[in-house]
Amino acid sequence: MTSARIQEPVPDTDKLVVAISSRALFDLTESHELFEREGLEAYRAYQIAHENDVLQPGVAFPVVKKLLALNRPAPDTPYVEVVLLSRNSGDTGLRIFNSIQHHGLAISRAAFTSGEATSEYIAPFGVDLFLSANAENVARALNSGVAAATILPSQVRDARSAQLRIAFDGDAVIFGDESERLSQEQGLDAFHRNETEHWNEPLSGGPFRNFLAALHRLQAAFPPEDSPIRTALVTARSAPAHKRVILTLRQWGVRIDEALFLGGRDKGPFLEAFGADLFFDDSPINVESARRHVATGHVPHGVSNSRLPGKA
Predict the structure, then answer these.
(1) Which residues of the chain are in CATH 3.40.50.1000 domains?
(2) Would you call 27 a catalytic residue per the annotation?
């Protein structure tokens, strides 16, 4: 991909703001296991003793790096801001900021809550997307109307290009879960009959609708033939249920670069073929499959997650 030709700078109010937890950004497996095994004081002592030891990248690190790279052509008017929201304290968080500096990540804003929920700071920071390894914080963010996903331990492959590639499931992620609920309660035939009968009625918006719109606005700052961002819809839907999806996105005025209607096929190999840097899905079954191929975020929303504690 050649260097993107920038059009007009994105105003500060139109920045894409992504909040990320320390465990999604860095590999904190060892210290987190220590915390669960021996408690807070042991964890605190360990992090202070190792605060000059650089943390290795976590599952979401490559995505953050590519997001921040979008600012390089216009660093004084950034397109993207990444904010750290961490349940560490200021003391234990020093190792995280040292690691951020070592890896050259332009992250300057943070909230360290000393074990309290970080979701209270999502609105003041104007967050469009929240990525965390803590499912409870993710559920709180979703309940407050912000796109959020639990970053799962995943297969993270070397990036094939500098282009940021993000893939989304449809129902209960980009769209509402009404159609998925009908499918689970009344079966696939009732689902297809409903989608055929209501093909010209737009689907309702799901928890990632606003994030997708914000991503679309960011894409609009670059020429389509040379965009540093590429998106994909990867859904279990198939014809004739595809038509309602396409017409809904058209009415919203939102661009999706690729649309894969898989009719129930395993999504993992298709996500790998697309080269997804990150994939969002509500289905626990689908995310278990996807995370063997690409970095995956679980969206605990809708009927597929109705039995989860703190459901969204």
Answers:
(1) 12-149, 164-305
(2) no
12-149 to CATH, choices 3.90.1170.20, 3.40.50.1000, 3.40.250.10, 3.30.70.20: 3.40.50.1000
Block residue for tokens 């449809």: 170
CATH topology of domain 164-305: Rossmann fold (3.40.50)
What does pTM read for this prediction?
Answer: 0.88
Tens digit of each residue's pLDDT (9 = 90 or more) over 237-295: 877 778 888 889 999 999 899 999 998 899 999 999 999 999 999 999 999 999 999 99
Cα separation, 17 vs 56, whole angstroms: 23
pLDDT band at residue 149 under the 50/70/90 scheme: very high
Give me the pLDDT at residue 213, please: 93
Options 12, 27, 53, 169, the catalytic residue? 169
CA dist 239 and 72 (Å) reads 41
Query: Would you list the DSSP string of 80-93?
Result: EEEEEEESS-HHHH
